[in-house]
Amino acid sequence: MQKxxxxxxxxxxxxxxxxxxxxxxSLLLALLSNIIIWLMILVAFGNFKEYIILGYNVYFxxxxxxxxxxxxxxxxxxxxxxxxxNLLAFQIYLEYSILAKFLSTMTVVINFILIIFISLIIxxxxxx
Length: 128
Hints:
The chain is mainly alpha-helical and about 130 residues long. Strand 1 (about 50-55) and strand 2 form a beta hairpin. Strands 1-2 form a two-stranded antiparallel ribbon. It has four helices and two strands. The model has no long low-confidence stretch (mean pLDDT about 90). Helices cover about 70% and strands about 10% of the residues. The protein has one domain (about 1-125).
């Protein structure tokens, strides 16, 4: 585990992608949006004891119930996507700089989609 962390640190510190403004601001915006997702879930459902609506289908209505902390898998998934995409962006920046920028900006898009999804789940649980 320690060797892996050392390799990741070397990758980030030696990559010229860390000076690219698009990659840098995409990473910051993705991390900020992921923090917002965590806070949205914890503020909205932190003290819920009963089951909440986890899924909704336009054809059938409510499709799944569960405990609120199952929603924490979504920001965890967003954090994993941030980690993987940005590590790949740092790795391939010299050869494919446009693809590296695309990977980095897609993390922001994915986290904004997660914000919309969590907002809809909160709306369904509070007003349905």
